[in-house]
Amino acid sequence: MDLIRLLAQNIFIPLSRRREGFNTSEIVRELERSQFLSLDEIRNRQFAKIKDLLNEAYEFVPYYRALFKRLGATPNDIKSIEELSQIPILTKADIRNNREELLSTKYDPATLVPKRTGGSTGVPLHLYWDREATAFKQAATQRHDAWSGYRPGEKLAQLWGAFTGHSSLRARLYNYLVTRWLVLDTLEMTEENSFEYVEKLRRYRPPFLFGHAHSLYIFALFLEKNNIDNLGIRSIISSAEMLTDGERQKIEEVFGAEVYNRYGCEELSVVASECEQHEGLHICSEGLYVEVPDGDEEKPGKLIITDLTNKAMPFIRYSIEDNATVYNKPCACGRGLPRLKKLHGRSADFLYTPEGNIISGISIMDNFAIHIPGVWQVQLVQDALDHLLVRIVRTEQFGEASLRKLSETVPEFFGDRMRYDIEYVDEIEKTARGKYQFAISRIDKPN
Ligand SMILES: [Zn+2]
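Above: query sequence and zinc ion SMILES. Below: predicted holo structure tokens.
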């Protein structure tokens, strides 16, 4: 029996939440109810929150005050949820250039929670959440976690990058009694350390594992290669990177566990995640309004997200620079929360055929990389409209058949005019945040 879990769930976690001043358990209870509302009811509630947000922004946020003035409009002119599209999109550059003007004058800055994005696109964003939004996001994460069976207080391993560690005694004690994380740093995931991670997992026996999609995959390959099984993991939440079908298959097979895909970001927290049906990702619609104006079930479109909870620094129609397809039909689980079908990553990483057709990195991985024998990892770098550099980390199985398959698949995806060279590497370099990139585009977007 896991005694610490009982203590954590009944004593330490409630105490620690009370100290933080966030009453998340009440919000979690409400979210567990509202997820089963009809889509119509969810939309009605979203619109009420949008009206409220627009009014606050108009009254207290200089940036939006000026924006409405420029438009010659007031929040009252937005009469339906669809009409929100009349508000111009908020870009990352807008946020960087108007950091002060985006802050609500209603809040005492000392009460706000600072956030900083990783800056995968080059420059980090600095932003603030108010306390209500922070509590809501904490609760929302908890609701989405619960779909995988995970509840706070359970033992959990994290395969995560750039972690500073629990250094002080106090932090270690807090982790031992409250958060209960076993952190396995992906930035140091060498072969030797991977054996050590296995030992730690065997000793700690966490039923839950969280991690970056690609790190989970690489760790699964390592376990498979060394015939390591029975780690006792039940559910895996994959996040922070796009999960390809091939990676998911491998992770589930090796761990013998279910994978729950999740999409989120530092500036908004959890955006969408899979339920037990594993058919697309339910959007956290009580807290976010997500538009995919130019996408549908087949065609990925840009995600435009309005944060319905954070009034201290409102993000209204924020362009997160990721793309997704959507599902229009309801999910078999009965939740009314709308779904994203699949994440397709950043527009910046999309590749192009010489004819100018767009190909997302994830569709390349789903469709071809996993079918080439002997490929451990692959990365495509487009350095000209008609040239690709294919970086490959090989296994012993890589040979003639692999080269033949590659010579068939490149034209299949990119057309006959695409030339390519192969570069064999020992590893694919990760981004500064320890993330893996499928595809890198070094060309200007063709018109
Ligand atoms: Zn569902």
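Residues 275, 277, 282, 331, 333, 335 surround zinc ion (CB under 6 Å).
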